[in-house]
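Figure 3 (text version): structure tokens given as input.
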């Protein structure tokens, strides 16, 4: 049975939407609904709760209607289904109804294994939409890119990097931010657009500080840091932004190959490879190693080991702006 990504969803007699990532599952089911409506606006939609299922319900709602409208049956909570649902769905797979799409949302676990195995074996001529949790930044970048592409909205690579960095810890917030930009902005979304809408996000400010420092622009980095702190930024995610960028730089230091090859090798997006290579210009292996040590010390200081977190941050920026060549040990005052 075909296994597809959330944005590759297509109509089939049975569509199994599996995995723990609710945002992706909701996106896939919405896309499928919209596409079916485009084909026939008279689409009849029925929602079924698998935990509260009543024997015979599936056959009843899937039976031909008086006027022959196509039907979409959306089953929720299949990971908590009752026995009656399992029996009826397994039976339904033997002879799916014409002009009917049954979408089964299963959030994970072993409950319902019998019908899961039946669907995955090809019974019912179905497809599976796999909605696993997105853990890598490159996956979240791809998600945001797909959101704009599906909506037909142009977006620059810089804007995608900015919006992904701003909402990297919460996919639901990232999705909502993309939809707001899609709905409220003009023909093209740029980095300036994202900055105008979300300049108050801690993560955005954090990466701006890191970008300036790693490029050797000490004054700009210090000014951006103070602005971020004055806006209520927490020092911990600020340090995390530096740590994230340095980890990527360390992975790629001395690595050879195309952006695509290295992205695949290290689990990154090609743009992350290109950015890290630019960041590495002028750095030495020793400077990179010392900078990583300074960031580790700063992380401990802002989490309570030091008496002055702001001083620790400013010292870290000083060291990294000099590409680690003037590191002088402990960052705590």
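Below: residues designed for each position.
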């Amino acid at each position: 049975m075909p296994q597809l990504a959330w944005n590759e969803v297509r109509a089939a007699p049975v569509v199994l939407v599996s995995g723990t990532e609710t945002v992706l599952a909701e996106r896939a089911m919405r896309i499928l609904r919209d596409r079916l409506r485009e084909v026939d606006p008279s689409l009849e939609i029925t929602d079924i709760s698998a935990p509260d299922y009543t024997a015979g319900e599936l056959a009843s709602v899937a039976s031909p209607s008086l006027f022959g409208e196509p039907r979409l049956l959306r089953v929720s909570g299949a990971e908590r289904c009752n026995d009656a649902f399992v029996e009826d769905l397994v039976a339904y797979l033997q002879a799916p109804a014409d002009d009917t799409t049954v979408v089964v949302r299963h959030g994970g676990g072993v409950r319902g294994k019998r019908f899961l195995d039946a669907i995955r074996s090809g019974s019912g001529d179905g497809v599976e939409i796999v909605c696993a949790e997105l853990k890598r930044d490159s996956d979240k970048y791809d998600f945001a890119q797909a959101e704009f592409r599906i909506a037909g909205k142009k977006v620059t690579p810089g804007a995608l990097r900015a919006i992904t960095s701003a909402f990297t810890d919460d996919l639901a917030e990232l999705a909502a931010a993309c939809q707001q930009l899609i709905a409220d902005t003009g023909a093209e979304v740029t980095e300036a657009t994202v900055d105008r809408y979300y300049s108050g996000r801690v993560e955005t400010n954090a990466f701006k500080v890191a970008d300036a420092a790693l490029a050797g622009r000490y004054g700009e980095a210090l000014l951006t840091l103070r602005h971020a702190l004055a806006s209520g930024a927490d020092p911990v995610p600020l340090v995390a932004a530096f740590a994230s960028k340095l980890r990527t730089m360390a992975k790629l230091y001395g690595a050879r190959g195309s952006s695509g090859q290295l992205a695949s090798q290290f689990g990154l997006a090609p743009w992350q490879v290109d950015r890290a290579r630019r960041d590495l210009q002028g750095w030495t292996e020793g400077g990179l190693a010392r900078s990583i040590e300074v960031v580790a010390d700063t992380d401990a200081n802002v989490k309570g080991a030091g008496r002055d977190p702001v001083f620790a941050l400013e010292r870290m920026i000083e060291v990294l702006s000099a590409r680690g060549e003037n590191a002088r040990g402990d960052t705590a005052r």
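Confidence is low (pLDDT under 50) at residues 327-333.
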